[in-house]
């Protein structure tokens, strides 16, 4: 029967609606999915593009999707190194998806965001928490160094906090290996975090510059301000080379001061090894614990122990096989660290399984851990010369608290104050981590020890319970772990503060610009304590301009004044009033960056790309400014002015190259040494033939204003693009110049020519009396690229980086696999289990 007219119309309408819906989906501008990941929301913005929170469609695990340009060599670098790391305190790279234009990295989601932001909210981090977080950070660097990799851009912004508040090192865009080249010369990192030898453009030992940066990080964590930070970039550099950090004895203890002083030794050789750092008394038991565990992990991984050997892994593999998965392919992907959709799925599934395992067997591992910690508490703890309260070992305290709570059957007698304290403790990331490790949740779920304590409790008279109940939580020594009690407030009134050191290196109270002055009584005397005041800062960074000065061809000078003149909109006053500038990571590619070199290697169609290099900034735009600021007579170089600088800032990661030669070599240098790199020769030839700097020869001022419009990014972003990132959040203040990460790639410094490079005329000292003259007189000295000389291996190296292709399920995009031949030996089992951390991981995300 023919449908009625009405029915026909209804059918038509229905078809039209479906059609429109589908069309709407096709024409949506918003990204909805990438590979197997469904985009949920934007969680950040990198120098190249947005960073998304996404959900893995098969496992529903949340990840972060970070996009990068296929043309950006640093993305290759980042992926190459990052995928090799398998360590608790390094964000895991699950999968790499290469689309037509972009490289997408599926990373472990860290809802705690950056340590930088955490510091902003806290103003400064209490010492015990610093010990714990810093131990984790050092552990991550120790692990990377053990794999012969240097990070070269260690800073607060590159340390994320996971849901447990654990530190996670990330952003390996500047990383390189040091196995083939012990001495480097690439100027690289963020200025305020840069070691003196980098500032002076001396050939440097990669590991040592990381150690310096750790010193800056620790200082900033404790003080909430940066040790060497001036409005003017050159002043900052001068200070890095010539000044010493000023310690605020209201915030730091003698041990912390000792550790920072060692880390910030001007002479790289005098800096301690990371083993020594982890064993330093300031890090209490955390450092040595992490050292032990990390060494075990490294040993196991270096022995190439196989994946899929744990019970959990075997069970998961079996399940997958039964479901019809090609488990051989999965094993292959995982063992070869392909970071393709198979290994990505495997790791996400495994994490989910671990979470389920913990739920099935609640707290078993935690109980075991707590036993260890209980026994640890019997060992004599390192005594701090400082306030005992503030240095009370967190883990021990937690364990003690657990024991006490077990004795008194905490489940039944838990007092509201205890609960509130535990809530308080959860606020801090370290506490979170501690609770997850130790006993924070132990009272909620029955475990062996709770059962035991219940048993003994039942044997007792009810009076004993009442007695326990009446125990004041504040009398519990474990309460000392409460960071809030060891906060700045308590420290202020501590009569046991380390006295000011003789000389002007240490001050009793550092007058901070823009800080609130509060009164506190110390030993009966009234002491003026100046707390940092949060205030919004002007994001006044400009891109770096290549400029050869007497400092060599160091090129990352910022001229902030034009920016200040242009008048950035100032941020609103923040809640807690601390003025902080968020250092922005920028990679400024200044000259002859042969991005196309890499594009071709990643090209999905296999064609050699002819994309142009996108950067090269003219270099002589701010000589006047430089001259002014480098004058030794400029105030700010003495200690009094040191005291007046207070603001910590979010640093701007900039990868800038000084000269054509340097840049060319840098782009290749980063890769020709590593096994997955494409043929350096090909790369360089193409770079030279296709180089165009038309895009990037913007004068600094115009660059700056461009950036200003965007608020927060250098126009030539780290990924070689115009800035896309708006910084609308509170920023660690930066007095004027947003500090910047710089990578000025080494012009292939070889050990052979180390002597040449170390010659004084090439590496002038910042405190040289002639520095002004040099700045005025020395024109830019473009270096002629001598690629063969710079890269002696250039002809001998085979094409090492091959791309495989596999269809990334769930989308029409293609996922590229890296050549297996270039992969590091398969690394072993799950160190999370060994660390006793991840086996109880709960992957439910905070948001
Ligand atoms: N794993 C992650 N979990 C949660 N948020 C993240 C993660 N990775 C990045 N983000 C967010 O995205 C922002 C930008 O990421 P990231 O700094 O890694 O980008 P980038 O391009 O490397 O930037 P830059 O070059 O300036 O360091 C971060 O500030 C952070 O807020």
UniProtKB/TrEMBL annotation:
Compositional bias per record (Acidic residues), positions renumbered to this chain: 837-847
Superkingdom in the source lineage: Eukaryota
Kinase is among the record's keywords: yes
Listed Polar residues bias regions: 407-422, 597-608, 733-746, 777-786
Alphabetical keyword list: ATP-binding, Kinase, Nucleotide-binding, Phosphoprotein, Serine/threonine-protein kinase, Transferase
Annotated organism of origin: Lachancea nothofagi CBS 11611
Protein kinase domain mapped to chain residues: 37-283
Enzyme class: transferase
Pfam families: Pkinase
Stretches with biased composition (Basic and acidic residues): 477-492, 788-799
Basic residues: compositionally biased ranges: 709-732
Record-given protein name: non-specific serine/threonine protein kinase
